[in-house]
Design goal:
- Helix content is 6%, strand content 37%.
- It is mainly β.
- It folds into two domains: 67 residues, Head decoration protein D (Virus Head Decoration Protein, Chain: A, Beta Barrel), CATH 2.40.300.10; 89 residues, no CATH class.
- The strands form three sheets. Strands 2, 3, 4, 7, 8 and 15 form a six-stranded mixed β-sheet that branches.
- β11 and β12 form a beta hairpin.
- The longest helix has 7 residues.
């Protein structure tokens, strides 16, 4: 279910996604959907490092829109999120532990976690993390429609692996996304 990279859903104001092309760092192996930073020492973008799936820093530059080639200076398109962009991802209680989102998740602040193994190394919204990255705005209407759930019902409960819509917090977007 829903094992996809962070998915850009749209922008509240109807503006298109902000995509910038950066040079790839040296010998990179990030995949589409990975959070990336600009590494000055490699003169290119590299994957954001994580410990047990949780990013080591809240500062990032954007989301890779294609897999790394492994060759330095290869042009890579990167989606640069802004505070009005809406994304979709699964909700997890820990790395590789999807949970069923419900109405209580709406409006809550969460961390991100990089999944591994059977979940294809995608990022997910993490309950109980230590760094707030995102704010959940609603349950993903595609999952609700598939299950016949009324998206406007006062109590909404999805299934494990269902997605939530979220926006990045301004604090996560204000960092330079650069390391020395």
């Amino acid at each position: 279910m829903a094992t996809q990279p962070l998915r850009w859903v749209g922008n509240e104001n109807g503006t298109p996604a902000h995509v910038v092309t950066y040079a790839e760092g040296t010998s990179e192996s990030f995949i589409k959907g990975d959070l990336v930073i600009y590494d000055r020492s490699e003169n290119g973008i590299v994957s954001l490092t994580a410990t047990s799936g949780v990013p080591d820093s809240v500062a990032f530059i954007g989301i890779a829109l294609e897999d790394a080639s492994g060759t330095a200076a290869t042009p890579i398109d990167v989606l640069i999120p802004n505070s009005d962009d809406i994304f979709s991802a699964i909700l997890c209680s820990a790395q590789n532990t999807p949970v069923a989102p419900d109405h209580d998740n709406i409006g809550q602040l969460y961390s991100l976690v990089k999944q591994s193994g059977s979940l294809d190394n995608v990022y997910a919204v993490l309950e109980g993390g230590t760094d707030d990255w995102v704010k959940v705005t609603r349950l993903d209407p595609q999952d609700q429609a598939r299950q016949g759930i009324d998206p406007w019902a006062a109590t909404q409960t999805g299934s494990s692996g269902d997605r939530v819509y979220f926006k990045f917090l301004t604090a996560a977007l204000d960092g330079s996304g650069t390391q020395a």
